[in-house]
Amino acid sequence: MIATTDILKAEQTLLAYILNDRAVYLEHNKELHENLFSDESHHRSIFRAYKQQMDEGGKTDVFTIASKVGMSAEVLSQLVASCEWFADVEALIDSLHQHYIRQSVNRLASFIIASKNSDGDELLTILEDGLKEIRSGGTVSFLTLLDTVKDVFRQIDLNASGNKLTGIPYGLKWLDNFTGGMHGGDLVVIAGRTSQGKTSMALSCAYTAAMTGHNVGIWSLEMTDIQITARLMSFASDVPAKDILYNKLDMRDIDALNSRIGDIITKGIFLPQGVTAKVSEIMNTIRLLKLHQGLSLAIVDYLQLTTTGEKISREQDMAKAARQFKNLAKELNIPIILISQLHRTSEKDQRPALHHLRDSGQIEEAADVILLVYRPEVYGIEMIDFHGTEYSTGGLAMIDLVKGRNVGVLDGLAHFNRDTTHFTEHSEKEVIQTPIF
């Protein structure tokens, strides 16, 4: 560990290394940021100019960098010449990084102490944002329209090719074509009444995502790991989940499991252990799974069983939880599915609507996509009129997209297998409403 008094010398040595050899910068660029260098000297300005030249493919010789920071080439050359050429580059970076953390934490602590009379929630937000900034190196990156226009034209090319799926598929073609799938940063709420299949819909999304090569994590506060696994095995084999768990299987079912189970057990489906109801702990395990396993999709079952742990009303608690999960989706650039209940008072209105979403309010605001699941056969209804066409309700589910940020709303049909609880494409042509923006 380099003493604090030697920090400026360490900065100078590291700058000399990268100025002398681009390979040093290229090898360690992910660990380097301008806040490793002090503001009192020219070191931070020198590094900033060097990084900008590297990013733009420009020259990084002493004369060019000196002109960028307004110093003579002779002074900068002396800095390079006076460094300790036998220093361990990795040790230098680590020492500067540790110094940066100590200095930043001290500043954050001083600021919080000075703000001690502020609201408790505000202090927590300051602390969380401050720690996040420290971890990121205290730098904020920006995109220009030049960057984002490229992404838009890439989407235009995909549309022209007929491939509308740009995210993780839901598993229903009409829904994937309309939305492009689930995208990084999306908070997707799947809601329904008891026995309508909201959890099964989410697990069907998990199954489809995993089978198309995406890593999925399932945080369930209602189902056990064995129950979830049996459901997914049932999806793969068509053997009823309840038979897998509770009945003696015949040879045909055993053969189906043995022949198809390989399709699912090798996929990236993760079931975190020791899941608690506290939102912060769920979020931390999502972050860990993203870090260590490259998580693509997180599913939380279900929202009303979680808590922020704060002494606030239930509605405020759920609203805050939804906002936190939305922020996490943006932070990790993954879609997060939240399963949600509907108000019990909505039972008299058989087909659910957006205002039935339990503790809705800000949950609705936080969500990018809201899907409502409705199975009319549960209410003894045998036939339904769906946009002028009569359908038998046996094995039929209505999936209403009641909120779709940037895409609009629509409704469509899906097939629900009562034995496996798997949602799949409906056998007949889906009828879809005209999108409403």
Protein model, in words:
By secondary structure, the chain is α/β, with parallel strands linked by helices. It has two domains: 132 residues, DNAb Helicase, Chain A, CATH 1.10.860.10; 268 residues, P-loop containing nucleotide triphosphate hydrolases (Rossmann fold, 3-Layer(aba) Sandwich). The chain contains 17 helices and eleven strands. The strands form two sheets. A nine-stranded mixed β-sheet has the order 3-2-4-5-1-6-9-10-11, sandwiched between helices. It has a two-stranded antiparallel ribbon with strand order 7-8. α3 packs across α4 and α4 packs across α5. The longest helix is centred in the N-terminal third of the chain and has 26 residues. It is elongated, with a radius of gyration of 27 Å. The termini are far apart.
Cα shape: elongated
Q: In percent, how helical is the residue content? A: 40-55%
Averaging pLDDT over every residue, what do you get? 81
Order of secondary-structure elements: HHHHHHHHHEHEHHHHEHEHEHEEEEEE
Regarding quaternary structure, how should these chains be classified?
A: single chain
Strand fraction equals 5-15%
Count of runs of 4 or more consecutive helical residues: 17
Query: Could you give me the name of the CATH homologous superfamily of the largest domain?
Result: P-loop containing nucleotide triphosphate hydrolases
